[in-house]
Amino acid sequence: MTEFVLAGVLGALFALGTFLVLRRDLVRVVWGVTIISQAANVYLVTMGGLEGAVPVLAHGAEHGPVTDPLVQALVLTAIVIGFGTTAFALVLTYRVHQEHGTIDVTELEGIR
Prior knowledge:
- The termini are far apart.
- α1 packs antiparallel against α2 and α2 packs antiparallel against α3.
- The model has no long low-confidence stretch (mean pLDDT 88).
- It contains 4 helices and no strands.
- By secondary structure, the chain is mainly α.
């Protein structure tokens, strides 16, 4: 049952991110890319397995299967890198607004 709920949430996150990426406002485009990257992180955690014991606490055979910690470490690293990239993109968006007075993508197309 949990897998179906997460599949629905992932679909909604990818749809929302795609919707925001296709907007004219540059800030919404940045947030759309951020939402898509976070949805990819949730997908990785879901595919890594939701059932199993914590690897640090249950390292013996008596606890059954354990969750793969490599996937969790990968996603944690991706979250940190994504936060930095989002902050950088928002600063660049602010700089574009200072230079050109707009963050509308269609108005920025003709500016050289």
